[in-house]
Amino acid sequence: MASQTPPPDAPPPHHRHSSAPPPGWRNPDVRAARRLVEMLQELRVLQTGVQIVFAFLLSIAFTPRFPQLTEAQQDIYIVTLLLSVVSSAVLATPVALHRGLYRHPGKARIVDVSARIAQVGLLLLACALTGAVLLVLDVVLGTVLAVPITCAIALVFAVLWFVLPWAVRRSATHHRT
Description:
Elements: H1 28-60, H2 71-100, H3 107-141, H4 143-176
Helix pairs in contact: 1-2, 1-3, 2-3, 3-4
């Protein structure tokens, strides 16, 4: 029999002799601390991806073929490299907030600010990944094919990372009322 993961805001399992959930699970500070730990774990996974993209982009500049890139391709490269660096900084900001405000009583506010910062980081990461795709496809396939394919990739990021969560949140809010 497969075990099912409870929803994130469900009370933790408790002993069979106790009818009440463990103390503190409804406490806003406890919930905020748990949400922050979950978010930091998610950001840790994203940071690995950002580092891989950044390493890939750094290595391109040192290849023999780099000087042969057109001016437009070099511009795409620079913008994409900078987007990856800035997305890395933005996605690491919640970690810095957590460290800088460790044991701070306003944990719920830290979670809210960190969630907004993470959204900006996701947007920047999506732009960096899309830029990397555009650069590679432009070099390999040419601009005529690279642009529509890259637009499709950008649309995939927009739908999966932004529209879908918004729609699910909206639907869940609508069903509660």
